Amino acid sequence: MKKKKIIIPVAAAAAILAGAGIWQATKPKEVTNIEAAFEAEQEAPGETAGLQSGTEAGIQIPGYKSITIPSGTKDVSVELVNPEENQVYFEISFYLPETDETIYTSDLIRPGQHLYQITLEKEMEAGEYPLTVQYAAYSADENLTPRNGAEVNCTLIVA
């Protein structure tokens, strides 16, 4: 009889620990590799970007390993997105650090909006170029208050 009193609580504790271990192993993990998809850019202390309940939330920043475009044209197909989870507008620029040139700057992109066709400032010659994708973020209200931005370094492949 005494063994039953000990076995039942031990078995229950083991079941709870096993369940917690399974939950921990299978819960969604935060993406920190910008090549994978998005990285969260945290707001500076005191900035809330339209948040409720005083909680802090990050800005989702799309990451690119490379961007491929055709040579000899300004009109190119590139998917640029502002994830719908964001509560900010994006202005996205393509910057060539080797020549200090900005070759593209978007209009404001609202949360959930995608751009598929863009027009560059100049035609690019075939080759590979270091590219910095710059994200300027602004509050999604009539004030358009600047928020934290980000830069993502990748390779521009012009074929």
Strand order of the largest sheet: 3-9-8-5-6
> What Rg, in angstroms, do the CA atoms define?
23 Å
Work out the number of β strands: 9
Average pLDDT confidence is 78
Order of helices and strands: HEEEEEEEEE
As a percent range, the share of strand residues is 35-45%
**Percent helix:** 10-25%
State the secondary-structure class: alpha+beta
Task: Tell the overall outline.
Answer: extended
Question: Can you tell me the residue ranges where pLDDT is under 50 for at least 5 consecutive residues?
Answer: 23-56
The helix tally amounts to 1
Question: Can you summarize the main beta sheet?
Answer: 5 strands, mixed
Q: How far apart are the first and last residues' alpha carbons, in Å?
A: 79 Å
Can you describe what's shown?
With 159 residues, this protein is an alpha+beta fold. The chain is 16% helix and 42% strand. The protein starts with a helix and ends with a strand. Keywords: Signal. Residues 1-25 form the signal peptide.
Topology:
Elements: H1 2-26, E1 38-42, E2 58-62, E3 66-69, E4 75-81, E5 88-96, E6 101-105, E7 114-119, E8 127-139, E9 146-158
Parallel strand pairs: 3-9
Antiparallel strand pairs: 1-2, 4-7, 5-6, 5-8, 8-9
Concise structural overview:
Residues 1-25 form the signal peptide. With 159 residues, this protein is of the alpha+beta class. Helix content is 16%, strand content 42%.
Relevant terms:
159 residues, alpha+beta, five-stranded mixed sheet, two-stranded antiparallel sheet, 1 helix, 42% strand, signal
